[in-house]
Task: structure prediction
Amino acid sequence: MSERASVPKEAEETESETEQEPVTTGAQSVIRALENAGTDYVFGVQGGAIMPVYDALYDSDINHVTMAHEQGASHAADAYGIVTGDPGVCFATSGPGATNLVTGIADANMDSDPVIALTGQVPTEFVGNDAFQETDTVGITQPITKESYFAADSDTVGDDVSEAFALADAGRQGPTLVDLPKDVTQGETEVEPGRPETPETYEVPEEADDEDVQEAVEALAEADRPVILSGGGVIKANASSALREFAKEYEIPVITTMPGIGSFPEDHELSLEWAGMHGTGYANMAISNTDCMLAIGTRFDDRLTGGVDSFAPDAEVIHVDIDPAEISKNVYADYPLIGDARNVLRQLFDAMPRAPDADEWRDQCQTWKDEYPMDYDTPDDEPLKPQYVVEQFSEMTPDDTIVCTGVGQHQMWASQFWEYTEPRTWVSSHGLGTMGYGVPAAIGAKLAAPDQEVVCFDGDGSFLMTVQGLSVAVREQLDITYVVLNNEAVGMVRQWQDGFYEGRRMASEYPWIPQFDKLAEAFGARGFTLESYDNVEETIQEARDYDGPSVIDAHIDPGENVFPMVPSGGDNGLFALNEDQLDMI
Amino acid sequence: MPGPAPDERMRPKGRRNTQGIRVDPEAEVTHEPRQAVLSALVKHRPGVLSEVSALFSRRQFNIESLTVGPTVDDDTARMTILIEEPEPGIDQAKKQLRKLVPVVSVRELEGEAVRRELALVKVSGEKPDDVNAVADMYDGQAVDASTDSVTVEITGSKQKIDAAIEAFKQFDVQEIVRTGAAALERGPKTLEKDV
Ligand SMILES: Cc1ncc(C[n+]2csc(CCOP(=O)(O)OP(=O)(O)O)c2C)c(N)n1
Result:
């Protein structure tokens, strides 16, 4: 659970109550519910069915950010939720507005990001009649939310929103949706929404059972080859500092999952960085050979595990998760600990009898680090390597710089070659792998953390999918640096075609893409081009210095591929270091 | 990138099966499916049935039958769900069900739970006496008759109903409707919150 005060403090509440005008419509009650929950920003697009809600927003102090596309609204809200820990809110009208939100909601659901979507709906009397701009939004979104509400009554609509807000934030975070028929929001009511509370049937486990904790620590202390696997849940539970204390005290090497990037500092000697399909060789060697894994806040996604039959096959697994349904879903847990990661880490810290005797194992991990360094070829005459651009940028920026990405090779390079040390600085689409995530996510991230530097590494394909979001960044004068790692291809697909489809590059090469620097200028942003090693630092610096959105169109070596690689369903320990090794495994 | 090639690396000895359970590296291990009766109390409100059935289809749980009806409490409905899955699947089904917001509680009923299903079978009305005789054999009774058809009601276990339907085939079965199982735990236990 985040540290956000989902229930306003008593004092604040009474204070604000005296200031506020009483509500007179359902729409005002909706906005009041958001205000009560502490909403600062809403990302959305206007439309017929949502208009009453916007009208009520007119009188509110909540900031509205008009997006260029509703997909961007849901991604911006998602990124806002990742960076702040508080739910991000997005609005859309009925029908096409609501369906455009769907990708972002599904994305939030896969990554357990707190998002609240409020959608307009045709008036209740038309629902089910295929009225203009009607879709069954609740039906469409039910499988991709924690809960989708259909607001049926002006008197209760505020409570629906309050509950949706609390639910998005409670326990394992995730998206919720409230569908708002126009007559319900227009309807008269004097009912103020109640405090944000989760539904009575929703139980959030807080602490793990003490006996279970005891058994788990005994197993961990006995281990010869222990590792900690830290997932995105550690960040969401604000447990990064508890993790750091635990790992350092008991000297256990830490691997993160990709969503867990930033939960443990990558420059620490115990860090093996992240494991999985394109994770580091040393993380994957350690995953493969560990005999006891303390996995926290991870759902053992297949991009992490490869084939589960070969995943950490020697390891006893201690699995800490707030969601009981994650226990033994993909990988069997010998020691399930259900509870909030921060609390459970405390419990583990206190119960641990001694540090595991693992000097040899740590040496082994260090050997793997030396054997499989993350590097790439940089002969001067070669076209620019994307890894170099990422690495340089990383070196030039403060630790708390937030990195957003699209999906593809550039996303992998941004995760591999940037050094992450702080939680909530890595904003990416993991479970759904949504191309087009980057442009709007950077907008949400910048508004969530105006004092932190924000950079978005995007691919030319991903960038084109949501490039219209640049207009929003320009209008809001957001100081974001977009770096398009331009390989004139949907490179990740091309890499797979070369590796697994005999180089038949069907529909993966994009030699017709626009000049992104000029496109940026057309939107009113600053545009830069990078073509060689000569001016990388200089260009990055100029773009960073520009006070507003800038786009660096970096023409990178189109032949560059992402390694190491564990092929889909493969064995983590058998990662390939180059194309040739793909044939060996 | 440097470093030892895949075949030169340190390798673990262990193995898991496809369900992620550590197993003897030498043995072949699979989990056989079994039948489970899940009983769930849910909030009685629109959309609950679709939420539950969508969960089962999305997660590819092999569902045999699902019935739903009111309980003593007007705000609560009770669902009986029969699934056939290997053990980890049954466990997942329970946990995923529990996660749904309108679900109040979920329990797997024990093997000896009282389980009943209802079927209505419409057969040709040419030999009403013979139809009645077969119905008697299965404790069924004719609930509607016309010159052309007889409709018989049968309640009981799935096996009993399967057998009755088999027997009725001799009379040219015209239509069948079955409810799927409804089930309750034997003895004084009831399904309440936190059991
Ligand atoms: C919306 C969407 N459509 C298709 C895909 C499939 N896909 C995954 S990676 C990828 C390539 C991305 O290309 P680009 O954004 O140019 O990045 P690159 O891999 O070249 O760095 C594609 C097409 C996806 N992940 N998302």
